Amino acid sequence: MNHTFTATILCRKEQKFMNTCMMKYANQGEQDAAREEWFATMDKRKEEREKKEEKRKQDEVFWREWWDKDRKKTPQQTPEK
């Protein structure tokens, strides 16, 4: 079933309010300021992504060692001392 048409009719008041707000505050100056902020923080976001990826790799190594997944040993196959 398609409920898009119903939502448009039922939310008309909210939609008009949102459009009025967007027209009032989403002007070219605001867009330019947001774009400037995005470009200014680009290096910071890149560093955060790199740190997150490094942590993911470290966690992957830890969990592989923790669960010993690569060796696939069962209790019967463990070497006896």
Could you list some keywords that capture this structure?
single chain; 81 residues; mainly alpha; 4 helices
Structural account:
- The protein has one domain (10-67).
- The chain has helices at residues 4-10, 12-25, 28-40, 42-67.
- The relative contact order is 0.04.
- The protein has 81 residues and is mainly alpha-helical.
- The chain is built from four helices and no strands.
Largest sheet: none
Helix content class: over 70%
Mean pLDDT across residues: 83
Number of domains: 1
Structural class, by secondary structure, is: mainly alpha
Please summarize what this structure is.
Helices cover 74% and strands 0% of the residues. The chain is mainly alpha-helical. The longest helix has 26 residues, at 42-67.
List the helices and strands and how they pair.
Elements: H1 4-10, H2 12-25, H3 28-40, H4 42-67
